[in-house]
Design goal:
Blueprint: H1 15-29, H2 36-43, H3 47-54, H4 57-81, H5 86-97, H6 105-116, H7 122-148, H8 157-177, H9 184-199, H10 202-213
Helix pairs in contact: 1-4, 1-6, 2-3, 4-5, 4-6, 4-7, 5-7, 7-8
Length: 214
């Protein structure tokens, strides 16, 4: 008896390749252009195969966000470890935090995941909180370092970090959706002004006031 022909099995691409392709699609065509069928065609998988790996589009979006955040996290750790003043590194942190511009793909994805989180389960909420927590802890540590060096005035680092990130989140939404008057450069200038007003040591602030009066 002639043996039945073997079915050809196609190896699925590494999961990271799928997530990179999803982010590339968001960058090129926006979230409306990201479909399971279209992504499957891009990576050589069926939409059913993708659902087997990710269970739902919500999970695909969250996994893609986590992948993007892991890359940003590595970049953030590198910039925080480099030499220079705490203020210089804080400004670099803010520059990394803010969107690159209108329709920034990472922030576009963030906003979508946030919007969907109203119906998310506890696991998804915990994973989102983990992303937020990493940014927060690094900022608290940087603020504490700046205070220990006398570069920043004494503040409650945890509370200040929460307020600064809330400010940056609000500005980031404006940049991402393209609200007039809130481009990236304008927001960076606003953030620098906020740091001057809230973190500069008192004596430096007094010196600036004296110079302004003269």
């Amino acid at each position: 008896m002639t043996p039945a022909p073997r079915r050809t099995r196609y190896a699925a691409p590494p999961r990271e390749d799928v997530l990179a392709a999803a982010m590339a699609t968001i960058a090129e065509r926006g979230l409306d252009g990201l479909t399971m069928a279209g992504l499957g065609r891009d990576v050589g998988m069926s939409s059913g195969h993708l659902l087997y790996y990710f269970r739902s589009k919500d999970e695909l979006l969250l996994r893609t966000l986590e992948w993007s955040e892991s890359r940003l996290g590595a970049e953030r750790r590198a910039l925080l470890a480099r030499p220079g003043s705490a203020r210089e590194r804080l400004e670099a942190y803010i520059g990394l935090y803010l969107p690159a511009g209108h329709r920034d793909p990472h922030w576009t994805l963030w906003l979508e995941v946030w919007g969907r989180s109203r119906n998310a389960d506890d696991d998804a909420r915990a994973r989102q909180a983990a992303i937020e927590g990493a940014w927060h802890r690094d900022l608290v540590a940087l603020l504490a370092e700046g205070m220990s060096r006398g570069e920043f005035r004494p503040v409650d680092a945890d509370r200040f970090a929460a307020r600064l990130r809330a400010l940056l989140d609000g500005f980031s939404i404006h940049v991402t959706v393209g609200i007039p008057g809130t481009g990236r450069e304008q927001v960076l200038a606003q953030a620098a002004e906020f740091l001057d007003e809230t973190l500069s040591p008192e004596e430096r602030g007094g010196e600036r006031d004296d110079r302004a009066r003269h």
